[in-house]
Amino acid sequence: MPTAHNGDPDEPQPRPMSTLPADVRGGVHFDLVAPNTITFVLHAPFKPYVSLVGDFNEWDARRHRMVTDGDGTWWITLPHPGATRYGFYVVIDEQSHAWVGDPYATELRWEGDRPWAYLPERTPDFVWSDKGWKCPALRDVVIYELCVRDFAGLWRNNQPVYGDFNSLLNYLDYLVDLGINAVEVMPIQAFPGDSSWGYNPVFYFAPAHSYGSPDELKAFINACHRRGISVILDVAFNHAWGEHPYYNFYPPLFGSQGEWLADLNPFFHQTPQSVNMWGGVDWDHFDPVTTRYFQDVVRFWLQEYHVDGFRFDWVCGVDYDSRNPMQPGFNPFHGISALCWAARQVKPDCLLIGEFWHLEGTHPDKSSVKLVHETAMDACWNGHFRHTLEEVLNQRWEWEKQDIWRALGGFRDDGFQVATQVINYTCSHDEVRPEHELKYYSAGHINRPAGMSVAEMALIKAQLGLVALFASPGVPMIYSGQEFGDDSPRTIDFCPINWEKLKRIAHHQHHALVSRLIEARRSYAALRSDHIHFESDDFIGEQTVRFQRWDGQATVVLCALNFSQSPRTLVLDIPKGGVWRDVVTDRVYQLDAGSRQFELQPWCGLMLTPISKR
Q: Contact 534/546 with Cβ under 8 angstroms?
């Protein structure tokens, strides 16, 4: 804690201005009140005294007392004090006070357990070169989820070297060559310490210091746009870690044993464990001050960093109204709906993706389908697709009875209107990688063909899942390393991608297959369409699925999946004679129109695309 004089709220205060010239709630603002000045702002409702403190004034809580409009917003205008750490001294009540950082801080100096905002010298703005950039439509994207720390990190001399924004630049050409045109970056907003997945955020306007500076992040996003890659930012808005300033200048919500105390905090609220099972403190997104704060957050990242959209983590928690948990729909003025609305006002074509599943204690009609129908959310992660493929590939109890057709193509049966409202995936950061799960959890009960090793089985089954992913209606997403069969364990600790696997023949071939699948997906509108027709198959008896995809131009792609441990002979109806290519094997066929038999080996797929017709 700084050594400073305690401010006396009873001392005469400077005469306040009636209002600020702009509706701002926090942060630092250049030339807001007068030229060549900087205005520091803090929104602290119900507080009797606030002052600006920092290195520049020796942390003196009396020297720079702030003024208020009476509605909770405090400010002070000064000449630029030079590069400095800064924060606020806030009187909580007649018995206590708090020293806090700026909740709108865009840079930090995190020393021990006390984070301070950092104001640098005024420098020229970052020069963007993406003026002509236009984000691809959701129907056309292939999403690649990555964690900055792990994707670009490595071990050196038994010491971790965490990935950062600069090191990510080295992989952009790799992603382009793979065919990726959208990266979903796991949370990068400032968190405690140097190493995290990012789902423990504290300062929502600042990138994590271990990843690099604001300009380094802008350089990464600018470079992505130059290569045709959209940047989707994963954000955890349900909860914050306890270092957040808004939590620290109100009385605590919880006692030493976790018991609930009187709730005197307008920003946070108490919730059942089912709403927040990860820790931290829960944001009250149905209080206007919190709604405004997070609307400012999404506007800031779209405007300042040119991000192309957001993946909202744990939407059911974000939209939990502790005053009325049984509301059947989404309140347009608060919760997730208000955040999506704010994003659309800034960037109408931004990509908005939600993670939603039904939350115990809320209305049973509240669903991911309603989320995309009642709000500006574009799409939701399709847990039904992932769960069904996981059951089938791992051959769990009665896996043959899974409704594979609904999982692959039943988005309308689930209530969605178009396929782009679902994000399909077989793995994300939330799951054990398929290759790892198959090798270390399921291999004992899976009967393999003679001569096939466990490692070969895991890789070929994972490939079958990816064929299903890119052949099905919906927006495909893969998790970093999945393109070459990384089998690293799931852990929130530092676990860099094992790029050495790419040097192995089997994993190199796996990578080539995924690259072909992505190329096919982006080349054939039929694979991006809503259209799918399933042939009549006995999945319980044969464990096979056949289907056709088509577009409005009479182009047809034929697909077949063999989930059996035995070879299967399948008949496909070739609509027109000509040259066809199997994307899976990269084999070319000269085929006549009519029925044609194909032999599929155990756990293999087929995707026939037309090259020419006659």
A: yes
* Number of domains comprising the chain: 3
pLDDT of residue 392: 98
For residue 489, give the nearest of 445, 529, 412, 431 by alpha carbon. 431
Per-residue pLDDT reduced to its tens digit, 372-430: 999 999 999 999 999 999 999 999 999 999 999 999 999 999 999 999 999 999 999 99
From 333, 358, 381, the end of a domain falls on 381
Three-class secondary structure of residue 253 per DSSP? coil
- Residue 429 has a CB neighbour count (10 Å cut-off) of 18
Instruction: Choose the weakest-confidence range: 13-22, 216-225, 354-363.
Output: 13-22
Tell me the sheet residues that pair with 534.
547
When computed from its CA atoms, the radius of gyration of the chain, rounded to whole angstroms, is 27
Note whether residue 75 is domain-resident.
Answer: yes
What CA–CA distance (Å, rounded) separates 65 from 47?
A: 13
What is this structure's pTM? 0.96
Q: Is residue 357 assigned to a domain?
A: yes
Structural domain contains residue 463 = no
**Amino acid identity for residue 573 in this structure:** D
Signed CA dihedral, 547, 551, 556, 557: sign only: negative
By residue range, what is the domain housing residue 52?
Answer: 26-119
Between CA 282 and CA 292 the distance in angstroms is: 16
Please check whether residue 153 lies inside any domain of the structure.
no
Confidence of residue 17 (pLDDT cuts 50, 70, 90): low
What CATH number has the domain bearing residue 601?
Answer: 2.60.40.1180
